[in-house]
Amino acid sequence: MSPAPSIPSFEQGPIRPPSEAHSLLVRVIRNCTWNRCTFCPVYKGTKSSQRPLEDVLADVEAMAAAAAVLRAEGRGALHGGRLPQEAFQVMLFLHGGERHVFLQDADPLAVRPEKLAAVIARVRERFPTVDRVTTYGRASTLARRTAAQLGLLREAGLTRVHLGLESGADEVLMAIDKGCTSGDLIAAGTNAVQAGLELCFYLMPGLGGREQATAHVAGSARVIRAVATAAPAERPLVVRLRTAAVVPGTPLAARQAAGEFVLPDDVEVAQELRDLLEELGDARLELRSDHALNLLPGLEGSLPVDRERLLGMLDGFLALPREQQARFAVGARLGLFGEIGDLDDPVRTARLESQFVGYEQPDADELLAAATALRARFI
Ligand code: SF4
Predict the structure, then answer these.
(1) What is the residue extent of each domain of the chain?
(2) What confidence tens digit (pLDDT) does each residue in 213-225 have?
(3) What residues flank ligand 1, with Cβ below 6 Å?
(4) How many angstroms is it from 137 CA to the middle of ligand 1?
(5) Which end of the chain has fewer CB within 10 Å, C or N?
(6) Which CATH fold would you assign to the domain 18-321?
């Protein structure tokens, strides 16, 4: 009997949001069309290029073939040499119930809407159990898309857009070279939610640096409030927190080295978040803290219902003696602490203290600086 034919390889981009861990990843466009944001290391040194429709459709067919083999033969099929390495993500997709698909890379919405709709339609055809198709999108692209174009994508099966808000303050957007204004962000967000799409904004507390922290909070609250108001009750805006980090080799790291940017520490970021919650007022949205970059994973809920609880959580941290704040920040970055009450856990605190054995005891400022620097490890 001749051996079964091997499944052709297919492309996969470098990143996806954490919420897409079990998604099929379909690469529609390569890298980032903008590629200038000062904090972002992901596509630096690469060029963006569109992929021919037939290549993307061929990838979808290859993924469908890989899925069929994995369903029939199980995980062991990954080691038989017939499946490309990329099929590991297909296995995660099967594990997740074959429900979610994520379009890559940074801005698939920059692709002609008819072409993108054809990709989504093929995905839906080959994977009929899928109930969520999501994509990254840049604000400047989404702000230009008409209701008819977004309607076409929604009809084809697009359900959600992930959009890097980063900040809603024009001076911060300018400083990080985001390539869009707060007006673009409001237009982009409003276009998405009014077209019947779910929208996730990614907000980066701390990205204004110490100097622009106040403007960062005020501008971000203004954009979030505007888009949250435009979103229907059944599909509220989702805001996901990504605490700012400085990654070596980025333009932001060069600004930091030149003394032009100071990254706020965890105490300052907690104060920013407290101010943000105050400024959001009665805005209706879902707040998520789904990344290891964030100090408090529990800082999530439905606003405004959960606002007082979340303010209480931040106040609990801000009221700690500075020494305790610093120890909590380091413990959180080392994965030892998840909530403030963990400071009372003798096992966890002993594990933290064991990190300092043999060293001169660092003071609170040194510990906070260490916790701030550790953020870059999570990018
Ligand atoms: S648009 Fe997104 S992927 Fe592109 S440089 Fe900015 S943050 Fe990075």
Answers:
(1) 18-321, 322-379
(2) 999 999 999 999 9
(3) 32, 34-37, 40, 42-43, 106, 138, 164
(4) 10
(5) N
(6) pyruvate-formate lyase- activating enzyme (3.80.30)
